[in-house]
Design goal:
It is built from six helices and ten strands. By secondary structure, the chain is an alpha/beta fold. The model has no long low-confidence stretch (mean pLDDT 90). Strand 1, helix 1 and strand 2 form a beta-alpha-beta unit. The longest helix has 18 residues. Strands 1, 2, 3, 4, 5, 6, 7, 8, 9 and 10 form a ten-stranded mixed β-sheet that branches.
Length: 279
């Protein structure tokens, strides 16, 4: 199974230390994947000096959607799955012990700091540290190792459930079928993941979450969630509705748990998407 990881990053003074930890921990966990880092938003790329990166790309245009698309466009043609990760994620030893490739789209579950007010219900909360200076690496490593080990034999964690979050794995064929991210949500990217998830559903695919594959997420450290871009946030909500014909808040289901990001009244759906795997 050939997997290529894509990590978009602003790679500025704040985010670069998280990017370093993300890449180094992913590589130290034993994966032999290509790791492509796509820095974005600066006129010229600054040196990263981070071991473990297979390829570093740069675009001066800021935006997660565009950066990921650029990264995917350069992957080895023999790649089976694309793996998209935020740069503020940490991969503990053994995080992928229960990793299995049984779905076109699936996500590991997240472990997030318990003092992160934005953490969603599916995710495990623990006192692992909200910023790097607070990060209790040994505590996080031990906790994740315990959970992924015991979940297999004693069902401490539910194994799988419908759901979608970063990081995610997606079949390269499905990514190409969908055309990747919609870059209209850049430069700040809000709702771009929901847009992708909605098109996955329209293609007849249910994303799954593997609850026994765990990734630590510092949360909101990638530089795109500082609360000062409400005009872009609202523009993206409006764009989503104009594109699909409905707002995700109309669905009456939790975006993290849903099987289907589509309204029951199919007459509301404006967007036409072919079904994946069908002529």
């Amino acid at each position: 199974m050939k997997v290529t990881a894509i990590i978009p990053s602003l790679a500025n003074e704040v985010t670069k230390p998280y990017l370093r930890l993300c890449v180094e921990s992913l590589r130290a966990s034993g994966v032999d994947w290509d790791i492509i880092v796509v820095t974005n938003g600066a006129k010229a790329p600054e040196p990263l000096n981070i071991p473990g990166i297979t390829k570093r790309l740069h675009t001066r245009d800021q935006g997660q959607a565009n950066a990921v698309n650029i990264g995917v466009s350069t992957v080895d043609p023999n790649t089976d799955y694309i793996f998209v990760s935020n740069d503020d994620m940490y991969y503990a030893p053994g995080w992928d012990k229960n990793l299995r490739f049984g779905y076109p789209v699936f996500s590991p579950n997240l472990v997030e700091p318990d003092n992160n007010n934005g953490s969603a219900d599916p995710f495990i909360k623990t006192d692992g540290g909200f910023i790097l200076d607070e990060f209790n690496r040994d505590f996080v490593d031990e906790g994740i190792e315990h959970l992924v080990s015991k979940s297999k034999s004693k069902a401490v964690l539910p194994k799988e459930e419908p759901g979608f979050n970063l990081p995610f794995f997606m079949e390269k064929g499905l990514w190409e079928f969908l055309g990747g991210y919609d870059t209209a949500y850049d430069p700040w990217g809000s709702n771009s993941d929901t847009d992708l998830q909605t098109r996955v559903n329209l293609a007849g695919v249910i994303p799954m979450r593997l609850r026994d594959v765990l990734v630590y997420h510092f949360s909101n450290k990638s530089g795109t969630f500082d609360g000062t871009h409400q005009d872009f946030y609202q523009n993206n909500i409006d764009y989503f509705k104009s594109k699909f014909g409905f707002d995700r808040d109309e669905l009456g289901s939790d975006v993290w748990y849903n099987k289907d990001m589509l309204p029951k009244d199919e007459s509301k759906i404006k967007y036409e998407q072919k079904k994946y795997g069908k002529d």
